[in-house]
Amino acid sequence: MPAPTPAPSAVPARRRAGRPTAAILDQDGITTAALELISSKGYEGLTMAALARSLGVAPSALYNHVASKDDVLILLMDHLAAMVDVSAFGTEPWDEAVRRWAWSYRDVFSEHTPLIPIIAVLPVANAPKTLAMYESVTAGFRDAGFPEDRIISAIVALEAFVFGAAYDVTAPEDIFDAGSLAEQVPNFTAAVERLALERHKRPTDVAFRLGLEALITGFGALRG
Amino acid sequence: MPAPTPAPSAVPARRRAGRPTAAILDQDGITTAALELISSKGYEGLTMAALARSLGVAPSALYNHVASKDDVLILLMDHLAAMVDVSAFGTEPWDEAVRRWAWSYRDVFSEHTPLIPIIAVLPVANAPKTLAMYESVTAGFRDAGFPEDRIISAIVALEAFVFGAAYDVTAPEDIFDAGSLAEQVPNFTAAVERLALERHKRPTDVAFRLGLEALITGFGALRG
DNA sequence: GTTATAAATGAACGCCATTCATTTACTGGT
DNA sequence: ACCAGTAAATGAATGGCGTTCATTTATAAC
After folding, report:
1. Please, which positions of strand D sit below 7 A from a protein CB?
2. Which CATH number is correct for A27-66, 3.30.390.10, 2.40.110.10, 1.10.10.60, 3.30.930.10?
3. Is a pLDDT exceeding 60 seen at residue B1?
4. Which residues, listed in sequence order, are joined to residue B89 by a DSSP beta bridge?
């Protein structure tokens, strides 16, 4: 018969309430766990209960470290901002640096579109890594001879394009299939059919490139 | 004392279950009520319960006419697409028509940013009025000598910019105030301070204009 | 007339974010 | 060495949400 001493279980013994020897949770751990949860279950799977469960903790415990679920989303988006590639500012010519930054920015957030409504509107003071990204980009623009009073406007415009394009990446392939209404919109249907299928390039990438190059060209002309 | 016959009450007598003389609800009525609700209480106030209440109906009654709340949002966004000004295509030069379309598009959706994640990803077959908008724009591009195989890409890029800019409109004024971290981001802080305060123009409008003009110029060069 | 159906009701469900009283172990002051 | 205060956990409870479903009934169709 089995020994009376309980075997170490996959389910850990239920922790008693009260202050533990060392804190189990912190914002970094919560952020990491949230990212893992998102990559396995998507944003629908990101609930406070699931997050707590993945950390081996009761849901209410999270609220000792974040004020709300929105707070978790802010932590996430600031973490992602640090993953955006700004390294080309300072090492590459301005236009190439913008190109790399924008593609990278779009790619990072296209996997995290539910954060876009938050980052687009969040005061930078609440997001230090995002702020650091802006600092690098701003310095790159200034060093490239950009007039200082237009730098922020240019960045805002580029960002708007990037966010919109990030959504576009997630659109289904047949988004432009008009179905039974096709006959009623002949010009549109024709244009969709002619959409050049460049090899190895998604339509969303072609559109992003087209817009980005126009913005880079247009803004490049502002440099002194 | 009051007569036994009940006076006509502000609260209507509770309707019995069963088929009414004429249908109370339809998709148009739901859409209109939803718009009113949003304009008075905002998108947080748009719940199925509140929507039903504003129509004098039980929440479950809505589900005879829409499959889900997302369905309501789709109705809303298609309704809004019809409000976007495409009238300049065909009457004005191409660049001016794009300008009017884009500004109008941005203005309409800046009041309805919660719909952006939906419209950005919804197949056009589910949104006839949106499709009609695309038809007008596509025809305008074609008539302006735009190469047919780039029309969709150009529209997608413009739309991405418009959606991102719509979010930007809703950002708080102090979004770029770095607060206590200002010293750590000197270039950024300086650029924010120099942000030219053009009279009568919001910074968000300045940025939109900057980006839009760059896109129009860049895309205009593609015309044959 | 009978039958079928569309369109309403209201009760119930499950999920979710959040709050709160409570417990407990560590920390700093005397 | 004690004591008080506090940080960090528990788990039960709450209220709101979208949605489902059995039921009812007026109208339309045969």
Report:
1. 6-12, 16-27
2. 1.10.10.60
3. no
4. B92
Interface test with A, best of B43, B89, B124 (most A CBs within 10 A): B124
pLDDT in tens, B53-96: 999 999 999 999 999 999 999 999 999 999 999 999 999 999 99
B59 touches chain A (CB under 8 A): no
The domain A80-220 having CATH identifier 1.10.357.10: the answer here is yes
Instruction: Give residues 135 to 174 of A whose Cβ lies within 8 Å of B.
Output: 135, 138-139, 141-142, 148-154, 156-165, 167-168, 170-172, 174
A164-197: per-residue pLDDT in tens?
999 999 999 999 999 999 999 999 999 999 986 7
Do the chains contact at B150 and A210, CB–CB below 8 Å? Answer: yes
DSSP H stretches of helix in chain A: 27-41, 48-54, 59-62, 69-81, 94-110, 116-119, 128-143, 148-169, 186-194, 203-220
- Given a contact cutoff of 8 angstroms between Cβ atoms, the answer to whether B77 and B112 are in contact is yes
Q: What are the extents of the domains in chain A?
A: 27-66, 80-220
Closest chain B CA to residue A158: B211
